[in-house]
Write a structure and sequence with these properties.
Number of helices: 13
Strand order of the largest sheet: 1-2
Structural class: mainly alpha
Helix content: 40-55%
Distance between the termini: 80 Å
CATH architecture of the largest domain: Orthogonal Bundle
CATH topology of the largest domain: hpI Integrase, Chain A
CATH superfamily of the largest domain: Intergrase catalytic core
Largest sheet: 2 strands, antiparallel
Oligomer: single chain
Order of helices and strands: HHHHHHHEEHHHHHH
């Protein structure tokens, strides 16, 4: 039996250690839990419940906290939190209660916290057409080390549907055998530690080979990262792997140069990849595997795009007998 005499607030670090060691959760997941639980701890302070013990937390307390979430504007946007965002905070609280259960600390059962029904309505996604993708890629004229690297990055995004963190994590040794290959199947570890296979096209590999010819020719380049900052410190152990923020700036730069919509981000390219597969008739389960979605409901958002396309075609070509 773990010590249950500590206030809930004092269990936060123990919970995060539990997430790391026993649950094996990734660092960014732990950080998200910490962020969401800090709002709960802040609410405890405001409600004069700073000293409340785990077994003293009741369903009434949780209900009052839910009202607080629904009526408190976001510090970032000033808007009230959506039902989906409120659920993130509730999921974190349920995880904390699950920790109490695992450690035999008397508390409210996690299943006593029901999630809010998400706001109805289709979530819109932003993507580029094939014509716009072509303009974006063509705007990167591969004439020097940076532009060749950038073209390889953009080609990789559209060929594979990689998330930005997945692309940043690619290492040089994963591409040692591509010299004479027309395509490449590469195993990666995606979001939530889930393994999947991604596929690099012949054209993407062509630009990666050009980039590697430059990268491998730089002296004292000891980083194991595939995509690196050429202007970074080349000393041993220097961290010159391109960061997600750097990748975002690269994509935004060429979006502006090519004249494609300014909303274009690395995730827009992932949406564009999935939308193109859907438009080509690829089944939803296959797209789910390509993207590494745990739940097919996440993938179903792309059917809304193709449904709209089919509706537009129907409106354009199907005859109305009243107009004959």
């Amino acid at each position: 039996m773990e010590n249950s005499s500590k206030p809930i607030k004092e269990h936060l670090q123990d919970f995060l250690d539990f997430c790391e060691v026993e649950k094996g959760l990734r660092k960014n997941t732990q950080e998200n839990y910490k962020k969401y639980l800090q709002k709960f701890l802040h609410w405890l302070d405001q409600a004069n419940l700073s000293s409340i013990l785990p077994h003293q937390l009741t369903s009434d307390h949780v209900w009052t906290y839910r009202l607080y979430l629904s009526r408190t504007p976001s510090s970032a946007t000033g808007k009230l939190l959506s039902k989906g965002t409120q659920n993130y905070y509730l999921i974190a609280l349920r995880a904390l209660l699950g920790y109490f259960v695992a450690k035999d600390i008397q508390s409210l059962p996690p299943d006593k916290i029901a999630l809010a029904k998400a706001d109805r309505g289709l979530k819109s996604i932003k993507f580029l057409s094939l014509e716009q993708i072509g303009k974006l890629l063509a705007s990167v004229e591969p004439k020097d080390d940076i532009s060749i690297r950038d073209r390889a990055i953009l080609e990789s995004f559209f060929s594979t549907g990689l998330r930005i963190a997945e692309l940043v994590s690619l290492n040089l040794d994963q591409f040692e055998s591509i010299k004479n290959k027309k395509d490449l199947e590469l195993g990666i570890i995606g979001k939530g530690g889930k393994p999947r296979t991604v596929y690099f096209s012949e054209r993407a590999l062509e630009y990666i080979r050009k980039y590697l010819g430059i990268r491998n020719g730089i002296k004292n380049m000891n980083s194991k990262a595939l995509f690196v900052n050429f202007r970074g410190d080349k000393k041993d152990n220097a961290d010159i792997r391109l960061t997600p923020r750097s990748i975002e700036r690269i994509v935004k730069k060429y979006a502006m140069l090519s004249g494609v919509p300014i909303f274009t981000t690395p995730h827009t390219l992932r949406h564009s990849y999935a939308t193109d597969l859907m438009n080509q008739g690829v089944d939803l389960r296959s797209i789910q595997e390509f993207l590494g979605h745990s739940n097919i409901a996440t993938t179903q958002i792309y059917t809304h795009v193709t449904n709209k396309r089919l509706r537009d075609i129907h409106h354009q070509f199907h005859s109305d007998p009243d107009k004959k």
